[in-house]
Amino acid sequence: MKNKNVEIYFFSGTGNTYLAAKKIAETFTKNGCAVNLFPIEKSDPSKIDLSKTIGLGFPIACWNTYPFVRKFFENLPKAEGAEIFVFTTMGDSSLKMAANTGHVLSKKGYSVTGTKGFCMPNNFIAVRSEDKNKEKIKKAYLKIESFALDILNKTSKAEKTNIFLRFCYQVSKFITNTWYWKLNQNIMRLNLDQKKCAKCGLCAEICPVKNISYGQYPDFDGNKCQFCLRCASYCPKKAIKKFFVPKTYRALDNEEMKECFQSK
């Protein structure tokens, strides 16, 4: 890594990607770097300082990512060799989404110094026990730290993509864009148990796309939900239900949640 002034832009739904970004930042800092973390949902891609090394991290959704995250990196300014590295988090397969993102960025003039996907606890269907999730995070940390050190030592590699993977990227991009369709918003809408709701307003506060309005109770009728499950995972009363799956997952404790979602 040529420049040790680093800005990492990340999105985290239930906390996995934040943990990965934080681990990378800690590893960089121990090795003399100055690092800042910025949530994607609160960042303007046109104002990124390309004189610094840029990190980009996000979760995998439907073998792609959330539409507003994709819009962020597709709208990054053109660069003339600015360094960037990409990392993703997922419960299982990603179809080399980090590599596909690197390909998109390289076409915009970025020097992609490394791309990597990390398996973290699943937050959608196959939600595991707390002990198994902790063990999975522990294993992921070793790989994340190794990736960060490779970036620092200039031994990291940008994963290669191919025609098939780029085709998958376009197909999955189309599928995730259909989430904005009113039909899909109605089918996959999150549901509120008013009897459990504490009326604390946290769900509306931490929604990355401001889809939740708040009157007497939270209202999920904004028709721009990304299904990141942040609101369901961090509802203190577990009053928000996701589709047909009752179990939720959260990677952060309350203090980390405030640091990640509320303070910036």
Do you know the CATH architecture of the largest domain? 3-Layer(aba) Sandwich
Strand content: 15-25%
| Overall mean confidence score, pLDDT | 92
Category from helices, strands and their pairing: alpha/beta
Question: Helices, strands, pairings?
Answer:
Elements: E1 5-10, H1 16-30, E2 34-39, E3 53-59, H2 67-74, E4 83-90, H3 97-107, E5 111-119, H4 130-152, H5 163-177, H6 182-187, E6 191-192, H7 202-206, E7 213-214, E8 218-219, H8 230-234, E9 240-241, H9 254-262
Parallel strand pairs: 1-2, 1-3, 3-4, 4-5
Antiparallel strand pairs: 6-9, 7-8
Helix pairs in contact: 1-4
How does this structure look, described?
With 264 residues, the chain is α/β, with parallel strands linked by helices. The protein folds into 2 domains: 5-172, Flavodoxin domain (Rossmann fold), CATH 3.40.50.360; 181-262, Alpha-Beta Plaits, CATH 3.30.70.20. The chain is built from 9 helices and 9 strands. It has helices at 16-30, 67-74, 97-107, 130-152, 163-177, 182-187, 202-206, 230-234, 254-262, and strands at residues 5-10, 34-39, 53-59, 83-90, 111-119, 191-192, 213-214, 218-219, 240-241. A 5-stranded parallel sheet has the order 2-1-3-4-5, sandwiched between helices. Strands 6-9 form a two-stranded antiparallel ribbon.
